Amino acid sequence: MKSSDPLRERVCEGLEGEVVEVGFGSGLNVPFYPPKVTRVAAVEPADVGWKLAARRLGATTTPVERSGLDGQSLPFEDDSFDAALSTWTMCTIPDLGAALAELRRVLKPGGKLHFVEHGLAPDEKVRRLQHRLEPIQKRVFGGCHLTRPIVDRLSAAGFTITEVDVFYEDNAPKFLTAQSLGVAVSP
Ligand SMILES: C[S@@+](CC[C@H](N)C(=O)[O-])C[C@H]1O[C@@H](n2cnc3c(N)ncnc32)[C@H](O)[C@@H]1O
Q: Measuring from atom 17 of ligand 1, which residue has the nearest CA?
């Protein structure tokens, strides 16, 4: 079991119908898709992630298809998904505003975006450290930002946050583990 598994289980709870997952990575959420999920369109630029997902994809009954390469430009019709999933991806997508606008476009009205993301910490002292370390973090971890205010960015993109839990995990320094886990609804 991986330390992120309990958060993956929590964030996937309640997903149903046709789902788009942005930043699918190596499919670590696949074991947690609830049975009511009928299909997943996986959006992931890295071929290596898709290859590493093979075993998990072989073990699930949920149909999962690699359907896109870039969350900033989704190859789907408007209003085509019941729900969306993003786990630790909003830190890395270069133009997060564009990606959130795309998610809103492809979600049906009332569609739910389930998210767990690290970002700007609730405490000023931790925030100062995050701002100092962000340039290094971005260089070492493929463009990963430490200071994105996830909930504010979702609201600014027009989502309504219906559930959110903001907390630190205790398995790593606070500047890395200021998590926001919740559900944002597309109007
Ligand atoms: C920290 S990893 C998280 C992967 C996965 N969601 C997880 O929870 O294990 C960030 C992921 O975002 C993906 N990514 C980076 N830029 C992206 C983009 N423009 N559109 C979609 N995914 C992107 C990366 O390839 C990577 O798989």
A: 93
The β-bridge partners of 83 are: 19, 112
C-alpha separations of 182 from 61, 162, 163 in Å: 25, 8, 5
Taking 90 as the threshold, does the pLDDT of residue 171 lie above it? no
Element (H, E) at 55: helix 54-58
Residues with CB under 6 A from ligand 1: 22-23, 25, 28, 43-46, 49, 70-72, 87-89, 92-93
Place of tokens 């609830």: 34
Q: pLDDT tens digit string along 153-165?
A: 999 999 999 999 9
Confidence of residue 2 (pLDDT cuts 50, 70, 90): confident
User: CB under 8 Å to 13, separation ≥6 — which residues?
Assistant: 34
Average pLDDT over all residues of the chain = 97
Q: What element of type H or E holds 110?
A: strand 107-118
- Of 158, 43, 183, 47, residue with least CA distance to 101: 158
pLDDT at 139: 96
Report residue 139: phi and psi, to 5°.
Answer: -70, -40
71 CA: nearest ligand 1 atom: 20
Q: How far is the CA of 132 from the centre of ligand 1 (A)?
A: 23
What is the C-alpha to C-alpha distance for residues 92 and 98, in angstroms, rounded to an integer? 13
Confidence of residue 16 (pLDDT cuts 50, 70, 90): very high
